[in-house]
């Protein structure tokens, strides 16, 4: 509170010359707050949506909001430019940026597409020298950028890189070397050059501030000695996720040094351990009284799972999606985890394993079942509709599902959503494209119809299986809260997409691949795209003319096309997004901005 | 026998179709010479106990039937082959369509019955386009023919589909991922990190199965209808259906009942699956196996590696008992008889 009254008068002059009359003691009217008070109040607002709403109220509120905002979230890095951001928000300490379209995760976006962080960093160095946090998703980050980051922001605390590319472990070395106040280093699932594990040894001996360290997805081995010492001296460490190079005996030593951990990602879980060491490891887990989240468990050998049991009862999130457990092994483990809210598994646990989940985890809210053999059509593997049914029956609080399966029925889905009507995220992937209900041979329209009719809170939906336009009629009509829709190998005609664009009032992201939607469908959303973040269409029936027309009618949209190699008029990929920054200047040659 | 038969094939050759969701096969066609030789040798097959494994051929077999029948058969057989409505063995080896539909889709049967007009003209480069997108229709018949016939040709080893996806299945010892699935870029939607992780460390379910067997042998019981005792074979020592078939023939030759010549062979124009063809050469037996689900299947449908993984036991079955396994084929056989 004290800071309010010590505000630098210079700042007041530059920001609000027209409002200079608004000193604390010169309240114009009872309903008008002085800026400082307003800013203080607004600084308690954290939700981006709330802040956006606030900024639209009036000019005063817009200004107060922009001065009080310290965290900025940019869902599409090209929707705005570094300059515009810098102009509007003078006091940013935390930046979250997302770059490439989501389908780049699945190799649908060519290399060198863009979303490079560097220009942003240069601007931030100029305008936000006190920057503390940078969270990037699907951005291209080079080692030079990481070094620049490490050198430019003396107070830098948290770096999180998810699904990014372009850097190597050398870049991480720069971070470890120079960021003296680092509290978080979270490196997840990036396409990077894993040169060596020596980056970890670059943390100075007097460095003690780390709270979050996640290097699970890096392959090269780090020096265990350096890691052990790092963990020992960072007393505030709460999250530790190591990579496969760390074995069980090493894990035990780490746990002994950091019993305060709340989140643990183990390394490889498959070592030959003597009985004595096994007991020591089990004790180490017993001593981790705060452990809520457990992940890693690569190559988890059933033989050693029992060491986890003492820690299981307090677990709220268990990530077994890299542990190839069979149903009998998994069932024994899950019986120890009654407090789970969130579970990620491989489909090696099969329906039987999911039945056990239904029985043992009544508090479950989120489940993700990943395929162990995504490219093998052998139906004997994996999970079916009965596993999903079993979970829905036992876990009535379920609201988030990601489910990869070989077969599904309309009836099963209808029952599932009856059991769990509170779904906010429903992502069903029937892995064989265009596969009908395997019992009735009908399209899966009624399944998703049931989902959108029953789950009124639905925000995110991914559809699969054989789907006609009827599915999209249902979606457009009933999915009032839907924000994100992913469609693949579905629909019969333009009408399907038109239904979605004509309904779904809250739609923000629409990504479509391999569907028979053409220009009529694309153009039916003319008015809608400005209220959305982005539209992605690939391998559909859209042509250059359609895209040109869209670009012409809607100048505030960027319409970016990647053409079909053989056919000049046919469009292979089109990415449409609203932007206040105009067409991007860094588009590679294969991207045509219309 | 200098019948100038043309070889035709239906497989789309080099172009791995970029179009997603098409069940095109990646069968590799044989060269012209192979095809010709194939056809010749085929005609000369004897008709002792044949365990009708696709592409299998016991090299020591004598030439069989005489005269007109042979000619007629030859043509018929060739037509059957060439019309190639069925999947070829090599095709299966090379990771054809994932759906191992039992021999004979309706369409192909009809075509064969009509006995002709099935040849699709060869393109200039010697390859014809696949018919339709159905896996069965686009089989490459002569590949299966050539794969085992005559000169001990070993079926082509499973090739990973030319796709950048890590071969999870291959790592497991399965045949290469079925073409239809693997060709679709970015489907199923799984992040690269996860895909690569699973490829490097294939799910241990399969490895466990092997581990349980200890040294990596896979002994399965083999029974033969009418034989007084069973045998056990380690199917891991064989590299192909042909090998297995030869071995089993030798093992059970003492139990062979009756000759097959009297059954005639000119009738088999519908049977282009070689196992059936062998069967219909007059053998009374078919080779079947029980898979992991407990279902009895006709041997030869799936790639060898997949068969090895799923085969729990083998049974040399009387053809009359195999009705459930090969409906149309068996009916035809019966009709002729």
- Main beta sheet of chain B: 5 strands, mixed
Nearest-angstrom radius of gyration of chain A?
A: 26 Å
Assembly state (oligomeric): heterodimer
Integer average pLDDT of chain A: 91
Number of H- or I-type helical stretches of chain B: 13
CATH architecture of the domain at 219-256 and 273-319 in chain B: Roll
Terminal CA distance of chain B reads 27 Å
Total strands of chain B: 5
Q: So what's the overall shape of chain A?
A: globular
Indicate the structural class of chain A: alpha/beta
Strand content of chain A: 15-25%
Please count the helical segments of chain A.
23
Beta strand % of chain B: 5-15%
Largest interface: A-B, 41 and 39 residues
The CATH class of the domain at 219-256 and 273-319 in chain B: Alpha Beta
Helix content of chain B: 25-40%
CATH topology-level fold name of the domain at 219-256 and 273-319 in chain B: Ubiquitin-like (UB roll)
Write down the Rg of chain B: 20 Å
User: What is the CATH homologous superfamily assignment of the domain at 219-256 and 273-319 in chain B?
Assistant: Phosphatidylinositol 3-kinase Catalytic Subunit, Chain A, domain 1
The CA-CA distance between the termini of chain A, in Å, is 51 Å
Domain Transport inhibitor response (chain A): 90-136
InterPro entries (chain A): COI1_F-box (IPR041567), F-box-like_dom_sf (IPR036047), Leu-rich_rpt (IPR001611), Leu-rich_rpt_Cys-con_subtyp (IPR006553), LRR_dom_sf (IPR032675), Transp_inhibit (IPR041101)
Pfam families (chain A): F-box_5, LRR_6, Transp_inhibit
Organism (chain A): Coffea arabica (Arabian coffee)
């Amino acid at each position: 509170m004290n800071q309010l009254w010590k505000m630098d008068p210079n700042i007041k002059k530059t920001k609000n010359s027209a409002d200079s009359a608004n000193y604390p003691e010169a309240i114009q009217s009872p309903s008008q707050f002085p800026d400082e008070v307003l800013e203080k109040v607004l600084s308690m607002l954290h939700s981006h949506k709330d802040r956006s709403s606030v900024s639209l109220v009036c000019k005063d509120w817009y200004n107060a909001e922009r001065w009080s905002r310290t965290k900025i979230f940019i869902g599409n890095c090209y929707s705005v430019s570094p300059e515009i951001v810098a102009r509007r928000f003078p006091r940013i300490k935390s930046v979250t940026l997302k770059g490439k379209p989501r389908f780049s995760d699945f190799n649908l976006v060519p290399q060198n597409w863009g979303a490079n962080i560097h220009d942003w960093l240069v601007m931030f160095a100029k305008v936000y020298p006190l920057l503390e946090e940078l969270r990037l998703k699907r951005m291209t980050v080079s080692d030079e950028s990481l070094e620049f980051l490490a050198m430019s922001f003396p107070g830098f605390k948290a770096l999180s890189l998810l699904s990014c590319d372009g850097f190597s472990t050398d870049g991480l070395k720069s971070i470890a070397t120079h960021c003296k106040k680092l509290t978080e280093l979270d490196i997840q699932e990036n396409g990077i050059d894993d040169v060596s594990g020596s980056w970890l040894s670059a943390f100075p001996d007097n460095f003690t501030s780390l709270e979050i360290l996640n290097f699970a997805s890096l392959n090269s081995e780090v020096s265990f000695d350096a890691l052990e010492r790092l963990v020992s001296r960072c007393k505030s460490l709460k999250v530790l996720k190591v990579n496969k190079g760390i074995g069980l005996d090493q894990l035990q030593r780490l746990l002994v040094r950091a019993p305060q951990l709340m989140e643990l990602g183990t390394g490889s879980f498959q070592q030959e351990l003597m009985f004595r060491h096994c007991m020591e490891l089990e004790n180490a887990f017993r001593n981790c009284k705060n452990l809520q989240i457990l992940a890693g468990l690569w190559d988890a050998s059933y033989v050693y799972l029992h060491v986890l049991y003492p820690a299981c009862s307090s677990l709220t999130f268990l990530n077994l999606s890299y542990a190839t457990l069979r149903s009998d092994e998994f069932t024994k483990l899950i019986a120890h985890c009654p407090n789970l809210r969130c579970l990620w598994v491989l489909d090696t646990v099969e329906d039987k394993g999911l039945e056990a989940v239904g029985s043992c985890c009544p508090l479950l809210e989120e489940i993700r079942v990943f395929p162990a053999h995504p490219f093998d059509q052998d139906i004997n593997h994996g999970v079916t509709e009965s596993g999903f049914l079993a979970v829905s029956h036992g876990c009535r609080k379920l609201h988030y599902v990601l489910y990869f399966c070989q077969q599904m029925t309309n009836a099963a889905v209808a029952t599932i959503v009856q059991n769990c009507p509170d779904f906010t995220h429903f992502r069903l992937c029937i892995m064989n494209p265009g596969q009908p209900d395997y019992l009735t041979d009908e399209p899966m329209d009624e399944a998703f119809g049931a989902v959108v009719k029953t789950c009124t809170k639905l925000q995110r939906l991914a559809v699969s299986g054989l789907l006609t336009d009827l599915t999209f009629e249902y979606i457009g009509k009933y999915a009032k809260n839907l924000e994100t829709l992913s469609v693949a190998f579905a629909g019969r005609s333009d009408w399907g997409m038109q239904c979605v664009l004509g309904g779904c009032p809250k739609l923000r992201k629409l990504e479509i691949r391999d569907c028979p939607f053409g220009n009529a469908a694309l153009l039916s959303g003319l008015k809608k795209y400005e209220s959305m973040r982005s539209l992605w269409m690939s391998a559909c029936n859209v042509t250059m003319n359609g895209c040109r027309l869209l670009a012409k009618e809607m100048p505030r949209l960027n319409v970016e096309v990647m053409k079909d190699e053989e056919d000049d008029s046919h469009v292979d990929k089109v990415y449409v997004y609203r932007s206040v920054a105009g067409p991007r200047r860094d588009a590679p040659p294969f991207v045509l901005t219309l | 026998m200098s019948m100038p038969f043309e070889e035709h094939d239906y497989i789309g050759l080099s172009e791995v179709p970029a179009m997603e969701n098409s069940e095109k096969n990646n069968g590799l066609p044989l060269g012209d010479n192979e095809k010709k030789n194939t056809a010749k040798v085929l005609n000369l097959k004897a008709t002792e106990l044949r365990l009708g494994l696709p592409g299998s051929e016991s090299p020591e077999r004598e030439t069989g039937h005489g005269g007109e029948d042979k000619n007629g058969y030859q043509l018929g057989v060739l037509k059957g082959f060439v019309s190639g409505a069925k999947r070829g063995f090599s095709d299966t080896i090379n990771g054809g369509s994932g759906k191992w539909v039992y021999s004979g889709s309706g369409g192909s049967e009809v075509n064969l019955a009509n006995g002709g007009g099935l040849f699709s003209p060869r393109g200039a480069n010697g390859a014809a386009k696949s018919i339709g997108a159905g896996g069965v229709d686009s089989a490459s018949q002569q590949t299966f023919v050539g794969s085992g016939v005559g000169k001990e040709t070993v079926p082509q080893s499973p090739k990973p589909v030319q796709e950048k996806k890590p071969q999870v299945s291959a790592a497991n010892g399965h045949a290469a991922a079925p073409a239809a699935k693997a060709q679709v870029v970015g489907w199923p939607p799984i992040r690269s990190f996860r895909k690569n992780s699973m490829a490097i460390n294939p799910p241990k379910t399969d490895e466990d199965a092997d581990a349980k067997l200890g040294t990596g042998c896979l002994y399965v019981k083999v029974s033969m209808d009418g034989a007084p005792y069973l045998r056990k074979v380690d199917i891991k020592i064989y590299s192909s259906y042909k090998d297995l078939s030869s071995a089993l023939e030798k093992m059970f030759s003492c139990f062979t009942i009756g000759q097959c010549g009297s059954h005639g062979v000119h009738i088999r124009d519908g049977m282009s699956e070689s196992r059936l063809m062998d069967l219909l050469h007059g053998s009374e037996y078919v080779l079947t196996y029980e898979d992991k689900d407990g279902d009895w299947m006709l041997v030869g449908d799936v790639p060898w590696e997949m068969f090895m993984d799923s085969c729990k036991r083998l049974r040399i079955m009387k053809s009359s008992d195999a009705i459930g396994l090969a409906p149309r084929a068996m009916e035809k056989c019966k009709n002729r008889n």
